[in-house]
Amino acid sequence: MILEYSKDFDKSVKKLKDKIALTRLAKLIDELEKAADLSKISNVEPIANHSRMYRITRGDFRLFVEYVKWDINILLLEYVRRNEKTYRNYN
Fold first, then answer.
1. Domain span at 53
2. Can you point out the beta strands (E) in 6-90?
3. What is the CATH number of the domain that holds 60?
4. What is the CB neighbour count within 10 angstroms for residue 86?
5. Taking the model in full, what pTM does it have?
């Protein structure tokens, strides 16, 4: 797949100080680049009320992604630690 990065994604990654989370993110991005589609990635769930948005779970963190063009381009939206406000932008 072809990955694109939003400004919010860049901001969320720059804020991260957790080296384990950054390592998991790097592995996940590598998996996404090699995968034919999201069904090949583990722990992917659709976001309710959004037909093209998904979240991918890695530990306490969530990577929010959106299909820009089905099965071709993925836009990485945000990578954040799970808390009570995590899904506020996606409901």
1. 2-83
2. 44-46, 53-58, 61-69, 73-81
3. 3.30.2310.20
4. 16
5. 0.77
